[in-house]
Peroxisomal trans-2-enoyl-CoA reductase (Geodia barretti), 319 residues
Amino acid sequence: MASLVRTAFRKDLFLGKVAIVTGGGTGIGRAITKELAELGCRVVIASRKRETLESAAAEINHTLSKDVGGAALPPLRVFPFQCNIRSEEQVEALMKYAVEKHGRIDYLVNNGGGQFMSPVSEISAKGWHAVIDTNLTGTFYCLKHAYHAWMKDHGGSIVNIIVDMVKGFPGMAHTGAARAGVENLTKSMALEWSPSKIRINCIAPGVIYSETAAANYPDPETFNRSLHIIPARRLGCPEEVSGAVCFLLSPAAAYITGCTIPVDGGQGIYRSPWVIQDHEGFPVELHSEVALPPKGEATEPGPSEFLFKALAELYKSKL
Ligand SMILES: CCCCC/C=C/C(=O)SCCNC(=O)CCNC(=O)[C@H](O)C(C)(C)COP(=O)(O)OP(=O)(O)OC[C@H]1O[C@@H](n2cnc3c(N)ncnc32)[C@H](O)[C@@H]1OP(=O)(O)O
Ligand SMILES: NC(=O)C1=CN([C@@H]2O[C@H](COP(=O)(O)OP(=O)(O)OC[C@H]3O[C@@H](n4cnc5c(N)ncnc54)[C@H](OP(=O)(O)O)[C@@H]3O)[C@@H](O)[C@H]2O)C=CC1
């Protein structure tokens, strides 16, 4: 049977390599796992739900190419390992398993994570810690123990999956703060670990649809409601994140470290989804005598129409 996995890369790109993908049983992590395994890599997938991991590993192993260029490939290339990244002991055990059973850790993809929607004012301390512990501290544990278990002496390449939070992340501020922490940690690690020949980068996905990702939100239309903030005018697919991860892990990115690549259909450089309710305007604190400019109406959306009209007038006046 021909492989069901599509890839833009050379089929033996990761032959003989070993990767760990946290959250590798669902959504984006599953697409990354499939592509790495199709390219010859052995992939340890790690997350909390054993059944999800086991069925994902079995299904992916079933779809993979059996040979490359006439040479047989190991038929099983995806291996489940139950691990809550919030537990340092479990993360240490994951790294030990990878080295003892698979011989090495060439790549680490810190993809496992998530959050819930809530204004900051309503986030409980427990909810805050759950999100910070998962996304920031969990990533730290994985980095630290992959380093000690293997990468310190042998090098490696790491990709951290974060979110598009360049304009803040109102509505999910806990995760915005955690991922900004991961992005900064990435820069520090790129510098501290360059003598060990470790490269480390981030991917910042925009709005990427998968059934499991969407299931975390109470309203099934949540993802589609983002279309107006996406210049590409469609949602992203997990496979579109996976391609960028494979690039960053591969030798093609040998001179890239400490950076973030957005995979977001242009969302990061476009408008925020957050709508500011109209209000009376900030008080003028220091200049009580100042004459305020007349207050216009804050309309949402439509600023580009106004801008185009102004540009057209300017153009006409220059003719
Ligand atoms: C515009 C569309 C979005 C575009 C961007 C998309 C980004 C994505 O990341 S999509 C992928 C989403 N996937 C996930 O989020 C999966 C993983 N998520 C989780 O596991 C949880 O959200 C977690 C990170 C909070 C961890 O959950 P868990 O370890 O199971 O912790 P608890 O369920 O026990 O919760 C602890 C605590 O957190 C508060 N809380 C949890 N969920 C909610 C919620 N839906 N609303 C409000 N508060 C929540 C709460 O305080 C919990 O404590 P208890 O009240 O005692 O249950
Ligand atoms: N989809 C999107 O639009 C975007 C997603 N992202 C991020 O991409 C990553 C993948 O999300 P996506 O595939 O979309 O959604 P999913 O909900 O499908 O994936 C989240 C994965 O994280 C794993 N996970 C969660 N908590 C833990 C934990 N404590 N320990 C180990 N694994 C954990 C889950 O597995 P299990 O439940 O078995 O533990 C699951 O496989 C996440 O970090 C997400 O926040 C970022 C930007 C946008």
